[in-house]
Each structure stands twice: as C-alpha cells, then as structure tokens.
Amino acid sequence: MGPPGAGKGTQAKAVADHFGVPAISTGDIFRANVGQGTPLGVEAKRYMDAGEYVPDEVTNKMVRDRIAEPDAEKGFLLDGYPRTLAQVTELDAMIDATGHRLDAVLCLTVDREAVVGRLLKRAQIEGRADDTEDVIRRRLEVYAEETEPLIEVYGERGLVVSVDGMGEVEEVQQRIFDALDDVPE
Ligand code: B4P
Questions:
Q1: Cys-Cys link to 6, which of 45, 80, 108, 172 (CB 3.0-4.6 A)?
Q2: How much is the pTM?
Q3: Among candidate residues 4, 8, 6, the one with its CA nearest the CA of residue 25
Q4: Which amino acid residue places its CA nearest to atom 49 of ligand 1?
Q5: Inter-residue contact 44 to 57 (CB < 8 Å)
Q6: Where does the chain have alpha helices with state H?
C-alpha cells in the first residue's frame, strides 16, 4: 500500500520473487486489458485516465478470478489492492474461501513532492495517460480519501508493516526485506 508513485509496482516484483509467489498488480492487469482493447480495458480506461478508481465490483471480480489461477495456490502478493473498504471486505471473503492468510500489509511512506516528481518523470519516459499533473493531483486526493483510512483498519489487526519509501530503489528494497524478516511466519 502507498500513494501513487510510492514504489509499489517497483518493489512488488522483487518481494514476490523473493517469496516465490506471483505479484498480482491490479494496475498492471487493467493496463494489459486497456492495451488489448478488451471490454474490461475499455471500462477501466475511463476511470484510470481521470485518476479515479475503477468500480469495486469490476476490480473485485478481476482479483477473485486472478487469485483462483493455479500459480496463486501457494500464496501471492497483492500490489494496489485493496484500495477501498469494500475491497477489504471482499478480500477477507476471498481469503476465507481459499484457506489463505493475510501475513502483512506493507505500507510505503513517501513525501508528496517526491511522488509528484517521480510520476512526472515516468510521464516523460512511459507516457502513461494518468501521469499528467492534474490527474496525479486527483489520484493523490482519491488515495487520501479512499485508501489511507485502510491503514488504520489493518493497523487495528496488527498487520501493518510501515517502510520508508524515500531514497534509492535498492535502499527501499533492503528496508522492505529487513522489515518483513520481523513478520512472524
Ligand atoms: P497503479 O498501477 O497501482 O499505479 P500507481 O499507484 O501509480 O503505482 P505504481 O505501482 O504504478 O507506481 P510506483 O509507485 O511503483 O494504479 C493505476 C490506476 O489503476 C489507479 O489510479 C486506478 O485507476 C486503477 N486501479 C488500480 N488498482 C485499483 C483498485 N484496487 N481499485 C480501483 N482502481 C484501481 O512507481 C512510480 C514511479 O516512481 C515509477 O516511474 C518508478 O520508476 C518510480 N520510482 C519507484 N521507486 C522509486 C525510488 N525509490 N526512487 C525514484 N523513483 C522511484
């Protein structure tokens, strides 16, 4: 978990590889569908381009289907999900139904100026439609309204592992591994 530009996608792959599980990124799945022009992609694009969240029903169904795939049988890392309270409830139900357990909720903390700078830099390299200054501002607002409160929800369950996301990618990665070492098996 973390605001747009915190480094979620950047770090997720390395953490998932380390634990030998797939990294399931809702943003990546949406972008792949947008690229292929599927009905899901056409619907998601409208929201993503405006900096809004894709509706919960659509996102929840997509994650439920992805988690049911064989490579997720032994566990998985979720990148960018859950982002709303309704998604938390749905994830709880999915976890119960599949016999999995939520081990930790990793939260990357970063300064607002740093995330804006990172996303504007990515805009120059990748040209993502949601990396313009106006859309970034909206994404940060939506994050504060919808997703930040979830940190308290998971904090009350004792699951939050907070990691400083400032600094070089490798430095942040090392902090993540150190913090996860302290999570009980
Ligand atoms: P995401 O794909 O999750 O986009 P993001 O929040 O920008 O994070 P991302 O993982 O891409 O970026 P990162 O911080 O790694 O979501 C995109 C959209 O999809 C959402 O706005 C929403 O519309 C939709 N969506 C996704 N999940 C949803 C859900 N559950 N419910 C509803 N809608 C959903 O990296 C950003 C940049 O920073 C990169 O260029 C990276 O290279 C750079 N960077 C990373 N770490 C750095 C470091 N330490 N130093 C310098 N640069 C760094």
A1: 108
A2: 0.93
A3: 8
A4: 169
A5: no
A6: 8-19, 26-36, 39-50, 56-67, 85-98, 112-126, 133-142, 148-156, 169-181
Query: Distance (Å, rounded) from C-alpha 6 to C-alpha 108?
Result: 6
| ipTM of predicted assembly, 2 dp | 0.89
Residue 12: its pLDDT value, please? 97
Q: What are the chain's domains?
A: 8-181 (3.40.50.300)
Question: Which tens digit of pLDDT belongs to each residue from 153-167?
Answer: 999 999 999 999 999
Out of 45, 66, 118, 139, the active site residue is 139
Confirm whether 138 is a catalytic residue.
no
Residue 139 designated active-site: yes
Query: Is residue 48 lining ligand 1, measured as CB closer than 6 Å?
Result: yes
Nearest CA owner, ligand 1 atom 43: 118
121 is catalytic: no
